[in-house]
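Repro:
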Amino acid sequence: MSVRRVLVVEDDQDFAEGLADVLELEGFEVVTAPTGEAGLERFGREPFDVAILDMKLPGMNGVEVLLAIKALAPRTEVVMVTGFTEPELIEQARRRGARDVVHKPFEIRRIVEILDRGSDSNDPVETGDETGDETGGTGEG
């Protein structure tokens, strides 16, 4: 099985780097981008299996990036993350093909579980507010 490539579009650089570090330790190849425009530029140049998108980004919002990704590569899995309660945006993301919507703060291991679940289920799942470490630590010793 080949390494799954993940594009993380997140304007919080520390969060993006922490997420990338954990995913790389789990065997994923990860590229980060700070804006939707930068993420789409990267997505247009190289293939990704999964995109992890923040809902609130400078410039394009996460749902706009989701729509552009799905137009370019409909089979790409998309996971949305958000620190805000925006029912309309969350519902839009679900309707437009987001696999999951995960609320911050959450344990980054939760994203690994979602990616490991892969294409086993096509049902989008909104995960509720989970407490955990946003910095990438597992909290396990």
